[in-house]
Design a protein that fits this description.
5-stranded mixed beta sheet; globular
Length: about 170
C-alpha cells in the first residue's frame, strides 16, 4: 500500500511538473523613445553627457544636412540602454548629436530601446538585426544603409552617418 501511494504521489508530481512547465519564452517588445524620453530615462543617464561633450566635424554635419532627404529617408536606431559598450554609449549619442546639429527633423529619426535584437518592433520582419546598436537609414521604407558597432573607430560617428544618408 505504501509503495502504491508513493508511485501515485510520484506520478502526480511528474504530471504537475509537465503541466506547469512552459518552454515558450515571452516575446519582448522594443519601446520607441523620443529625445525627451532619452533624457529622462535612467537607463540612458549617460546619453546627455555624451551628446553635450561631442562636437561633430562641421563638414560632416553639412553633408548630413544637405544629403538627408526627409521626403524619402528615415533613420531607425536600435539600441540597448543597459549596454556599456562603446557602440551604445559613444556611437549612438554621437550620431544623434550629428543629426541634431544638422537640424534633421527628429520625426524622421526613430530610436528603439530594446533588450535584444530579437525584440518586436514594426521592422522585425523587414530588418534582420543581429546586434545592438544598429543604425539603419531607410529610403522609401527599404534599408538603404546600415551602421553597426564594428564600423565605429571612436572618431568616425559623424562620417558614418554622413556616408549612410548619402548612399
Amino acid at each position: 500500500m505504501v509503495i502504491q501511494m508513493t508511485k501515485i504521489f510520484a506520478l502526480c508530481v511528474v504530471a504537475l511538473t509537465l503541466v506547469a512547465c512552459n518552454t515558450t519564452t515571452p516575446e519582448q517588445s522594443g519601446q520607441q523613445m523620443s529625445i525627451s524620453d532619452l533624457e529622462k530615462n535612467p537607463g540612458y543617464s549617460w546619453y546627455q553627457t555624451e551628446v553635450a561633450t561631442y562636437t561633430p566635424n562641421t563638414a560632416m554635419v553639412d553633408s548630413v544636412r544637405s544629403n538627408f532627404d526627409a521626403t524619402e529617408q528615415k533613420i531607425c536606431i536600435f539600441v540597448k540602454p543597459s549596454c556599456g559598450c562603446r557602440g551604445t554609449q559613444r556611437l549612438f549619442p554621437r550620431v544623434m548629436k550629428t543629426l541634431l546639429d544638422a537640424n534633421i527633423d527628429m520625426s524622421k529619426v526613430e530610436v528603439w530601446s530594446m533588450r535584444s535584437p530579437s525584440d518586436n518592433t514594426p521592422y522585425k520582419t523587414t530588418l534582420a538585426l543581429t546586434s545592438l546598436p544598429t543604425i539603419v537609414v531607410m529610403r522609401n521604407g527599404v534599408e538603404d544603409a546600415r551602421i553597426i558597432d564594428a564600423d565605429f573607430n571612436e572618431v568616425n560617428a559623424d562620417t558614418l552617418i554622413a556616408q549612410a544618408v548619402t548612399e
